[in-house]
């Protein structure tokens, strides 16, 4: 899947990311003003993953990380979304725009976004646990085979 250029509306800071890549993930990190360590913990990845996005802007994260990044962007404040849009398209920041009217998010939408982020992290941990169990079973079988 190819990374596509983000679409930025001129009247608001609505940004649609079809496929996240290292550059867009790094822009979100910058918009949130987080360190590599803080951003990694926030989305549930290793610090080296965040560092790799900065080093390799074309790198496309795995699907579950794409979902986490979508959720983080959805949950972001309007200020963070505006900063993200500017980081993605600095030329758009040159033209003055009217500030958007505040739009209060319903509590249900915030809870749904939080649940989606938690579910993505649970799915990631389940996959990791399954891989670890398979590795342990393989090692156990190897050990049992060596004592026969």
Provide structural commentary.
The chain has 148 residues and is mostly helical. It has one domain (7-146). The chain contains seven helices and two strands. It has helices at residues 22-32, 36-43, 47-55, 63-75, 78-88, 90-94, 107-146; strands at residues 7-8, 15-16. The chain has a two-stranded antiparallel ribbon with strand order 1-2. A hairpin with a 6-residue loop joins strand 1 (7-8) and strand 2. Helix 1 packs across helix 3. The longest helix has 40 residues, at 107-146. The radius of gyration is 19 Å and the shape is elongated. Residues 7-11 have low confidence and may be disordered.
In brief:
Helix content is 66%, strand content 3%. The chain contains seven helices and two strands, in the order E-E-H-H-H-H-H-H-H.
